[in-house]
Amino acid sequence: MHNESSPILNGATTVRFNQEAPPYNAFLNHSPYRILYRRVIYPSALHLLEATKFIDQHPEIGEIIRKIPRISDVFPAADGFQHLKSVDWDIISKQEEVLYLKVEQHPDLRSFLLDTGDAEIIYENTADAYWGSGPQNKGKNEFGKALMRVRERLQRPSTSWLA
After folding, report:
1. Which Pfam families match (predicted)?
2. 40, containing H or E segment
3. Comparing C-alpha atoms, which of 54, 29, 49 is closest to residue 94?
4. Within a domain: residue 83?
5. Rounded CA gap, 85 and 83, in Å?
6. At CA 16, angle to CA 113 and CA 149, rounded to 5?
7. CATH number of domain containing 128
8. What's the domain range around 91?
9. Residue 111 lies in a domain
10. Burial of 38: CB neighbours in 10 Å, binned 0-12, 13-18, 19+
11. How far does CA 116 lie from the centroid of its chain?
12. What is the pLDDT of residues 35-94, one digit of tens each?
């Protein structure tokens, strides 16, 4: 059972992490965790997130992105197809969906996330005022918020058909 007095947290009410801080940096999109989506394996969350921009209207572009061998090439490749991105694609909901799939499919990540209890999760990235904490901690922290929503979803008791 996961609780607020997790050995990872030691009673902390805030979890701060960055690209170099294990175990939480494993949540980042570029970490090497494969994800199964629609019966296809994506090498990373970044591959999947960028591919979702195109999968429904241009599956061939989604496939090109999925097959990119170097993670550092994923965003630049997807950026070249931005004019073909789905008009209804929403970055926040897709990021949350990708994170949910990632933690659902990797028990270690699920445990790390649940072990944060009800702590606020902050992605400390001073260079990113949207996904991270931003300069002087005035960023939106959308990545941390997405992780907290995923955690909340995982904490909800599942309803059983036997109930």
Report:
1. NADAR
2. strand 40-42
3. 49
4. yes
5. 6
6. 40
7. 1.10.357.40
8. 14-155
9. yes
10. exposed
11. 16
12. 999 999 999 999 999 999 999 999 999 999 999 999 999 999 999 999 999 999 999 999
In a domain, 148, yes or no: yes
What are the Cα distances from residue 84, in Å, to 15, 47, 53, 55, 161? 37, 17, 8, 11, 42
pTM: 0.88
Asked if 137 contacts 128 with a C-beta cutoff of 8 angstroms, the reply is: no
Please check whether residue 67 lies inside any domain of the structure. yes
Which residue carries 């999760």 as its tokens?
A: 121
How many independent structural domains does the chain possess? 1
Provide the pLDDT confidence category of residue 10 given band limits of 50, 70 and 90.
low
Nearest Cα to 146, choosing from 73, 91, 95? Answer: 95
